[in-house]
Specification:
single chain, alpha/beta, FAD/NAD(P)-binding domain, D-Amino Acid Oxidase, Chain A, domain 2, 7-stranded mixed sheet, 11 helices, 18 strands, about 35% helix, globular, binds flavin-adenine dinucleotide
């Protein structure tokens, strides 16, 4: 069996690794001239670590990540610890995205990664699928996996009308920086602030710090990314208890701040055809307030590879994959929405840990 994976992000690379381990030939076609990671830090939850362990990569991922815990504070700095959950429901690893993607790319192997190879469409037939590339070339495969992210070309052909939509008013700013002179960061602080802001900072373990600021229902943006982030940092500290976040933002040059209007993929009626399947953000770009899109996405990769390894033919494996994923992500959407709709920091923190608990223990 030969598989073409469109997209060399965390999920596409993990898909290729899982397929290789199942004895299936897989090539990653990435549009960019190099494997790179859009983003700064990435929280890897235990469900994703279970996938990496299963693929024999767990220790290497742990080697480039720092243990951390997701507890929220209210804007006056009070720690919120919702009752009924264990420490395990809060624990995750923070990795620097470029290092993680580089590790995954090395594991896939250079021979099975085609760079500057943008997929523009496909023609499916009974025996397989012909994948079309931007340079006019075509390649035959038994299966095309769309791991091409929120703006997936594969999805737009598989499910017409499923373009990613802007999550109105939901914005994110973040960076990884060395703390400026006089600022010490020895713990993780994440705050649920006023005006529907969230944000804080997490040490990465190598002397740098990942800071992040998000807002739901933001008014129109004005000024530079740093001014926008600085303005929202004020909502995260009502009593002056936390001068660190504004100092980190202040010390970050505008061109080092990663800003995003958050995009969502609408719930899909299908994830597969007989010869095409979606994984990761291509199928379910989620609002990052639950910080779990990648952790959930790598589960898609392992499940798909397992089903393909077991099945007699591709279409039945894909049908089984879709039967599992559609109800699974309906629950993710429902739990995620509960977090978003929370009206107080306590409610947000409780719904957030309830989501993590479900993800980690189901
Ligand atoms: C602010 C923010 C914070 C987040 N924090 C977390 C977190 O802490 N933990 C977590 O688990 N998740 C988090 N997420 C979600 C996570 O970033 C995504 O779920 C994850 O990156 C999706 O990976 P992917 O491989 O599916 O897609 P992507 O990372 O988008 O990769 C897609 C790849 O496909 C390539 N590509 C696109 N189109 C084509 C094409 N036509 N042909 C070939 N290649 C193509 C792209 O160049 C890219 O390399 C966060 C998201 C945001 C926005």
């Amino acid at each position: 069996m030969r598989v073409i994976v469109a997209g060399g992000g965390i999920v596409g690379l993990t898909t290729a690794i899982a397929l290789h381990q199942a004895g299936i030939e897989a090539v990653v076609c990435e549009q960019a001239p190099e494997i790179r990671a859009a983003g700064a830090g990435l929280g890897i939850w235990a469900n994703a670590m279970a996938v990496f362990d299963e693929l024999g990569l767990g220790d290497r991922v742990r080697g480039i990540a720092e243990p951390s815990e997701m507890y929220f504070r209210d804007p006056a700095g009070k720690l919120i610890d919702p009752p009924g959950f264990s420490k395990d429901d809060h624990r995750y690893l923070l990795a620097r995205r470029p290092e993680l993607n580089a590790l995954l790319a090395r594991t896939v192997g250079r021979d099975d990664i085609r760079l500057e190879s943008r997929v523009v469409g496909y023609d499916e037939h009974d025996a397989g699928v012909a994948v079309r590339f931007e340079d006019g070339s075509r390649a035959e495969a038994d299966l095309l996996v769309g791991a091409d992210g929120a703006y997936s070309v594969v999805r737009s052909q598989l499910v017409p009308g499923s373009d990613a939509i802007a999550h109105e008013g939901h914005h994110a700013w973040r960076s990884v920086v060395t703390p400026p002179e006089g600022v010490t960061v020895d713990r993780s602080v994440i705050v649920l602030g006023e005006q529907r802001t969230r944000g804080g900072y997490v040490p990465t373990g190598d002397g740098t710090v990942y800071w992040l600021i998000n807002q739901f229902g933001s008014p129109a943006l004005h000024g530079t990314p740093r001014e926008q982030a600085r303005e929202r940092a004020e909502f995260l500290d009502t009593t002056g208890w936390n001068p660190v976040l504004p100092a980190l933002v202040e010390s970050t040059p505008d061109d080092k701040i990663l800003y995003n209007q958050i995009m969502l993929v609408p719930p899909l009626s299908r994830w597969v055809s007989n010869r095409v399947a979606l994984v990761g953000d291509a199928a379910h770009a989620l609002s990052p307030h639950i910080t779990a899109g990648a952790s959930l996405g790598v589960e898609d990769a392992l499940l798909l590879a397992r089903l393909l390894a077991r099945a007699e033919e591709v279409p039945s494996a894909l049908a089984a994959y879709e039967r599992d994923r559609l109800p699974h992500y309906a629950t993710v959407d429902e739990l995620s929405k509960r977090v978003e709709d929370s009206t107080t920091p306590e409610e947000f923190a409780t719904n957030y840990v309830a989501f993590s608990h479900w993800m980690l223990t189901r």
